What does this fold into?
Amino acid sequence: MKEIFFKVGNCRVYLNNNDRGYHRFLESAFAHQRIEAEPGNCDLCISLDWCKNPTIASVSGLSSLGGSTLAGEHSVITVMKIHRKHKIWFHAHIEGSRLRLDFRLKSKPAEDFFRYKLLRKPIEQFYYILTYHLVYYPTFWYSEKYQQRFPLHASAVNYRDKGILICGLEGVGKTMLALMFLREGAELCTDNLALLGRQYAYPCQELLRIHKSEDLKHWLGHVEPVHDSGLMKGFYRPKKNVIKEKIRPDILLFPEFGDKFAVQEISKEEARHRALILSYLPEELADYARYRLFLELLDKQQDSRAKMEGTIDEALKDCACYHVQMVRSDGLESNFRRLKGKLWEK
It folds into this structure.
């Protein structure tokens, strides 16, 4: 088994698995987050076994909830699908304040050889999706339970000593707006997912996937390529000592496209409502919402929704929240210039 120790947010992670290719992917993905540690002092201990006939050993004291799910005190076993194709068996259990996860994934040498060698499909894309289920989703849940930090689908930058969160669905322009702020001298915190706590927003530290068609010059100085994956989107990781470890949310933007440009300040209640809805519609967090339900069987007393709403309300207490309507045909440069003028004339 290959071992690796690293940090995601404020969580110390230990992961061992028996696939050399996946281990190399993890070494590249978390190159700047590696730590010296022992399994016993990590918050998450994750084991992945690629095998021909995956099963989870029976555990006494668990009751069947139907289907393939068993649950008991601080322990749950189930079978899930990754990307609606790949079955994964997992056993999650809490030991004190440590979360242990044992995963089993079916090894298909012939099928994998045909798909990834003969057809030259990039296996990194599967590794990328797998890492959400093995690492990011458990980290999100652990951060919610023990640190009261909740994932938002948002870009985050620090500009003129103001923390700016840009929340919205894919394709609405949140990344490009963040890039425009970077061009103006802003500091990057996160591109796609942020962990929002009561006082600060923290980077999720996931890999970035950037279209080859995108102009990389705005990213230079902030990210570096992991390797050439041959995908439509290349893999990039934040450069070491460049990413802001946290920002205080001073401005929250909800961009969308419409017929005319407008910036309208909205209430904290509406901002919280928008943030929750827009964060759990994208695929990454929609999948996590289902994943979280299984992990909540570990602690039936946890009320994530109430905690999340309370945390967002506290975080937005001194934050100015705006609905931003941009005109697509006017181009990003024009929309950004007008947005900046509106924000800094207030």
